[in-house]
Structures are given as structure tokens and as C-alpha cells.
Design goal:
341 residues; OB fold (Dihydrolipoamide Acetyltransferase, E2P); globular; four-stranded antiparallel sheet; Aminopeptidase; alpha/beta; 15-stranded mixed sheet
């Protein structure tokens, strides 16, 4: 059967049950009002399956300049046939509309939406927007994959932030196709933290660099999302073990500069570095070395600074500290694990 895509509509509320099954619905959803007195409208794509199943939410561009998730969602819509889908796929390609329009990370009032969730029904503009984003969209989900990238001036590997001590979020993390998985307990105010606290298992997927489409990383992320949908019986197909090559990290942290000047950061993304290894040098404007920055522990490079101009206290390198191999029962694809599907 041919996929049927309905005309884009504007809605005040998103009622999944009112949308016809077997079709793709494209909606502008009224979230809050801007200074012209007209709505901020968030684009939402709903793929309604013909069979019963869970609702998987995928959000992108909660930081308005983190764009790889947009292309990931577009490619996902292209390959999903609602007639072969069980449940619902709810996709938000641009969560932070004002930030996207201003080509910036934060909301229009310069507040980071991913630090104030679940917002408030009154107060600052960003808090109102965050409140209704949760109420009108996120509360509809059974599971959430929140797509991000590095911030301006930095680059990221393809990595997962998740509480891997929690069985459900560990499963979500292991279903993806990352280079690195980092144990990250939910930081208060993040979308992931609110979702997990309210019974919606959620992880953050960091896809490379800001303000760009990196199709290699996008395609790897897409593979992980499809694998997730297969695991939860939304799509037919074999569930793949996606952690065979991934580095698992017990925790991660940034290494900072102590001096200002012109910095050169040496390791590549996903490189292993050793304790005591020189990872960067800071030069003065005449090319004299002011500081050699060394790794204080051995680990894997998750992200790094790309801007040569460096003030004292600049984040230089995001280092992940390797953890012991996980219990094989926890890995999707393992027979014992599969028996629990």
C-alpha cells in the first residue's frame, strides 16, 4: 500500500487517538505565544500504525543550533510505512523553534530549555514554552530518544548519555549504534530527567557537531532508532547487538585550560588517550608555548574544543573513563536477553 500523508494542519492539542491509523500526519502544534501575540508552533510528525503498540517519541533541536537530529527524523519518515507499523511514532524535528530561527542554542530569552524542564504555566517565556512542550507533546510518549549534538565551538563523537544502572534506559542505550555510551545520571532540569522521573524511559543521543548535517553519523543514528523499534515490536526484523564496538564509560568529565592564548587540541574523536599524555598546547601570540595540557587519567575522547582562541578556563577535551565490560545478559542480541522481549 502507498503511504498516505495528510495536509499539514495547525492544532491546539495533539490527540493521537483522533488521528487516522495507517497514515502520516503533519501538524503545527500551538505551544505558546510570541511577542507579536501569535503562536509559537512546533512541527510534529505523527506516524500512526495500523496495529496496537507503544508510542515512541523522537525529539531534535531542543538546542536550536543542534541540527543533525532534523535530518535523522526526515530520513526516518521516508522509510517508515504506517501500514507496517505497530503503535505510534511521534517525531519533533525542531523542538526549540525560537532558538532555531535565531540560529542559537538557547530560547529567545537566552535560557537553555534543557535546564528548566518541566517549566511553569506562568513566568518567563522559556518556562511557559517548556511547560506546554511537556504537556502537549512529551506526555504522549511511552519512550523518548532525545537527539542532540555538541555545542558551538566543539565537536562530538556519536555517543549516548544514559543511566545504565536503570534497566529500561540501559536497554535503550544498548539498542542504539553509538561509538561511546556514558553513564550519566539524569541532570535535574533536563528533558531526559523529567521523562524518566515520570515513567517515560529516555536517553540522550549526541550526534556529532552543531549547525551541520553529518550524514554518516545520521545514518548510524537512524540504524539505532530502527533497531529500537524492532525491539519494542513496532517493526518486524531482527534486533541487532549494537554495543559490540561501543566503548562503555563509567563517567566523563571535561579537562580545562589554565592559561589563555591560542590552543591546539591533538587527539581525534573516539581516540584512546593515556594518563600523562599531552592532549593540547596553549601558545601566546608569538607562538611560544604557555601551557601543555595533559590527561590526568586514561580514557576515550568523547568531544573536544575546536576554537583556537582560548581563555583561561576553556573546556578543552571531554574524556570518558572506561568501565568494565557489562554482564552479557544486558546486551540486546544475547539469547537470555532476547527471551525477555
Amino acid at each position: 500500500m502507498e503511504k498516505k500523508v495528510l495536509v499539514i494542519k495547525t492544532k491546539e492539542e495533539l490527540r493521537l487517538s483522533s488521528l487516522k491509523k495507517g497514515e502520516i500526519h503533519k501538524v503545527h502544534l500551538h505551544i505558546s505565544d510570541n511577542s507579536l501575540g501569535v503562536p509559537w508552533r512546533v512541527p510534529v510528525i505523527v506516524v500512526r500504525g495500523v496495529k496496537k503498540g507503544p508510542t515512541l517519541g523522537v525529539t531534535a533541536a531542543l538546542h536550536g543550533d543542534e541540527l543533525n537530529g532534523i535530518s535523522t527524523i526526515f530520513k526516518l519518515v521516508d522509510i517508515i510505512d504506517p501500514n507496517e507499523l505497530a503503535g505510534n511514532l511521534v517525531l519533533v524535528p525542531i523542538a526549540n523553534v525560537p532558538g532555531y530561527l535565531m540560529n542559537q542554542r538557547a530560547f529567545s530569552d537566552n535560557i537553555d530549555l534543557n535546564r528548566i524542564m518541566p517549566g511553569e504555566s506562568s513566568g518567563a517565556a522559556s518556562r511557559i514554552y517548556a511547560h506546554y512542550f511537556i504537556e502537549k507533546i512529551i506526555k504522549k510518549f511511552d519512550f523518548l530518544l532525545d537527539l542532540h549534538t555538541a555545542s558551538q565551538g566543539r565537536v562530538n563523537s556519536l555517543y549516548i548519555r544514559a543511566d545504565i544502572e536503570n534497566e529500561q534506559t540501559r536497554t535503550l542505550a544498548f539498542l542504539q549504534n553509538p561509538q561511546i555510551i556514558v553513564q550519566k545520571f539524569d541532570e535535574k532540569g533536563t528533558l531526559r530527567a523529567w521523562a524518566n522521573e515520570n515513567g517515560i524511559p529516555a536517553i540522550t543521543i549526541e550526534i556529532g557537531n552543531p549547525n551541520a548535517f553529518q550524514h554518516g553519523l545520521i545514518d548510524e543514528t537512524l540504524e539505532g532508532i530502527i533497531n529500537t523499534m524492532r525491539f519494542y515490536k513496532m517493526l518486524k526484523g531482527k534486533v541487532q547487538d549494537m554495543v559490540t564496538d561501543a566503548v562503555l564509560c563509567d563517567h566523563s568529565y571535561w579537562i580545562y585550560s589554565k592559561k589563555g592564548g591560542i590552543i591546539d587540541v591533538f587527539p581525534k574523536l573516539a581516540d584512546q588517550v593515556n594518563k600523562g599524555e599531552v592532549i593540547a598546547k596553549v601558545y601566546d601570540v608569538f607562538g611560544n608555548v604557555r601551557e601543555e595540557i595533559v590527561a590526568d587519567k586514561s580514557g576515550v575522547v568523547i568531544g573536544k574544543n575546536m576554537r583556537p582562541n582560548c581563555s583561561a578556563g576553556t573546556r578543552v577535551l571531554h574524556l570518558g573513563i572506561n568501565m568494565d565490560s557489562p554482564d552479557p545478559v544486558d546486551i540486546p542480541g544475547n539469547k537470555e536477553f532476547q527471551s525477555n522481549i
